[in-house]
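Lab notes, practical 5.
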Amino acid sequence: MRVMTGYVIASGLTLGGVAAGVVAQQATAPVARYEMRAETMSGFGGMGAGSGGAGAALAMAMGGTPKAQHMLWLDLGTSRAAADGKPKAEHFMPAGAKLGKSVLLKTPVSKPAEPGTTEFQRPKGRMLIFWGCGEHAPKGQPVVIDFSKLAAGQIPPGLWTTAVPIDRWVSPSSARTYGTWPSDDGKSAKPDSSLIGAHRVVSNYSPELAFNLAKDFMAPLNASNSAMGTGATLLRWGAVPDATGYYAMIIGGKQAPKGQDMVDIVWWSSSATRQFGGGLSDWLAPSTVAKLVAEKTVMSPQTTTCSVPAEVKAAAPDYMFGTLHAYGPEESFAYPPRPADPKAKWVPEWTARIRHRSSTGFLVGVEGFGGAAASQQDAPKPQCKPKKKGLGGLLGGAIGGAIGVPGTGGDGC
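Output from the prediction step:
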């Protein structure tokens, strides 16, 4: 058996060429691409994280703060098919990962789509959009979108960012054969799992991959929020080692009388350039984050506070849920390594990369989840009406999924 050791790919290089100003190198697509995404989830976001979710929920019920959870996603895509038509893949990890001998990457089985069972319900509410850190919203905010004036199923134009690239991760649609984990092997990363050390991926439809990771799960984000005398909300967090930048989002609302659907959905972004959703909720490359920090779309790694304008709280008096992301490092590998001679053609057998981030979820004003002003009994309970997906429900689910609101998206509950 030949073990192919990975080589680090220099930052800024791609399969199609090199940094601007250098002669592009001819390269072919690798037979296999492997991608790892590692996340440390704390606060309210950690409640749904793997097998630790039940413990986090119990910690909340007992009045404590749940322990940060580690999450790991693995995706293998190749241009080959298994010779016997039965794809199998395993990722062997260092003992510190505490995942046993290996984890199994399963190839999903396609299922026919189920007939639609939902009915369209035209929304009657509005969306109020705020952005930027500051005690008060500047002139021109909020931008108001009236759902009743939009065509059925239409997403408001200009809502999602186009300035932040959405990475094309390995997926079933981009590979002839695809394997993914977590799977049905009953395993999940633990709060004390470590990724540092030797990794090996073996399958019957891909070259063997071998590489060593030097970066571990990021430290958890310890955040708090408190009311300011001006009516603004102060977000504060501890600096996370290896963080390349920070980004915060809050979604809130104002409900109609008698607990009916929300009249207003309020969405705030810490971006000073009015950027929402899209790649900002992904695992961003350090080079991308550096560019976004320079543009003031993402907060710098030295930033540890941000004031949410008073007008946001005034517009969303009933419910405000937020997330804070700390984007982290990346490690990339390839076999064989890129030739030093730019005129030499590069024919990689495989590439692999891992990206990191640390995230936390919080309820504004709720103690124990980044809050410091109210008891947990005061936490509002958002309404849920499944099987009626009007534009408000679809859009609300999309936003909730983007910022990590538990239970959003999917069936609307």
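Observations recorded by the TA: The first strand starts at residue 7 and ends at 8. Helices lie at 53-61, 286-294, 310-315, 391-403.
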